[in-house]
Amino acid sequence: MGSVISNYIVIVAISGVLSVLLALFAYYKKTDFLGIRAFVISSFTSAIYTFGFALELSGKTLEEMSFWIKVEYLGMPFIAPASLIMVMHFVGLESLIKKGMRAALYIIPFITTLMVWTNDYHHLFYKSIYLRDNTPSPLVDVVMGPWYIVHGSFTFGCLLAAICLMLWQWNRMKRVYRRQIVTILIGLSLPTLGSFLYLMGLTPYGMDPVPIIMSITSTLYIWAILSRGMLTAAPIARENLFESMRDGVLVTDRSDMLVDYNRAAADMIEGLNSSAIGKPLAQLFLNAGKDALSYVMDTEPLLREEREVAWIKGDEICYYQIRSSPVQKQGGYLAGQMIMLIDVTERILLQDKLRQLATMDSLTGIYNRTYFLELSRGLLVQAASNRSSLSIILLDVDFFKSINDRFGHQYGDQALQHIVEVCNRHIREGDIFGRYGGEEFVICLPDTSLKQAAQLCETIRADIEQSVLYTLIGSINVTASFGVVEALSPKATLEELLSEADHALYSSKRNGRNAVHLSQRSEITLFKPI
């Protein structure tokens, strides 16, 4: 046997092995692609065809080679219609694939196979089969019968229709799927071209080049499935729906691997591009912060869930409302998850601003009177329940009216901000600090006795006295007076405590200012640090 034919047989056999591997790989791969069955049929029948052809080439007699030709036709007629069905699923035309259409597409291949195996009785497929002359080893040639033309026309028609469908879908399919389209187009076009060259008699020794070409296309398919997520799913959610949505949409399979996304999602998530297809969702959410990652880890695929998360996007923090829902096939079979991302950053920031306006003093940035009273009442109830101590401090800026009259209200405001800045250096975590009104401030100290609160007051008083306020018009010396009270009775109300603290503060004002006075059981005394 000639070395050329021997090499050809080896390559064809390798092509058959690759087709078998491709069929097995596609069959056992977890996927939601409805056309996977047609893809497996196409790959398996390709394997039958190529192995049959390899054995035909190794045959030595016309009778032996004719038998292997019959074996080839157990697979070859079914490749083209199976490929067309697979492409129809891929481009979203699965609604057209009914049982009647499947039967219509496969009936001619079945008749072709029957015709080949019974050709000796009617000669409708081959008029005659004979061995060629002047070849390095025995090679078969045929004279076409009428059904051969029917079979050839049907095969080319299926392949051409599949190619046209892919080209028609080109501009409608998002860029991430275009690599898959190119792969399938190559897988369809190369065998078609090879068949055309074979029929035109333009191949070496008139041998069929298609089995060798299939080794290339099978390798290409395997590479595309492994690296590009090909046939993971022809989009569970359709492109026209995806791209018309302003909210981001992600689709995952049952293993939480990314299957699809829309343009809005790519704008919302850094690093989301075609290379992310087939990667775990957790990897995509990793750089978005702990809230986003926690969502991925905690979500149950079978449950609908809605959550708002802080989302790190570059140097800024956004807020997304994430809604997930299961994607189910007919019969309730779980296919994956659809995750919708809604940008609620503007609403969250507005709510925070409204909350700040409702709870914070706009000038000083500390709690306003209303919110201070609300929080302090809660701490007072908690202290009474736990039998723990709680103290209240009132402080007032000394000679504040003189600052306003002498320097102007602008510098009066700066004096108030200066007081807050100094106090914040000594306020502990858990203490409540608020503006009580005008130039008066109030501090609620949980788990703090009267003696501890008085010592804190003295520290703050001394710091205010020593901290000079520097302005454009020069330095301004500011001092403050303090009144302190402790809640000694579990039945004491916040209003009663504030009233006692106010009396103590008045004593500080009346006795020279810049001092700390304590109110204890209606007795007011000057605090003298040790």
Overview of the structural elements:
By secondary structure, this protein is α+β, with helices and mostly antiparallel strands. It contains 19 helices and 15 strands. The strands form 4 sheets. Strands 9-10-8-13-14-15 form a 6-stranded mixed beta sheet. Helix 2 (36-58) packs antiparallel against helix 9 and helix 8 runs antiparallel to helix 9 (210-228). The radius of gyration is 42 Å and the shape is rod-shaped. The termini are far apart. The chain crosses the membrane at residues 6-27, 34-54, 74-93, 105-126, 146-168, 180-200, 212-236. This is GGDEF domain-containing protein. Keywords: Membrane, Transmembrane, Transmembrane helix. InterPro entries: Diguanylate_Cyclase, GGDEF_dom, HisKA_7TM, Nucleotide_cyclase, PAS-like_dom_sf, PAS_4, Rev_trsase/Diguanyl_cyclase.
Lateral arrangement of strands in the main beta sheet: 9-10-8-13-14-15
State the end-to-end distance.
Answer: 114 Å
Helix content percent band? 40-55%
3D shape: rod-shaped
Number of helices: 19
| Gyration radius over CA | 42 Å
Task: Describe the largest sheet.
Answer: 6 strands, mixed
Please count the beta strands (DSSP E, at least 2 residues each): 15
Q: Round the mean pLDDT to the nearest integer and report it.
A: 84
Instruction: Supply the helix-strand structural class.
Output: alpha+beta
Low-pLDDT windows of residues: 233-237
Strand content: 15-25%
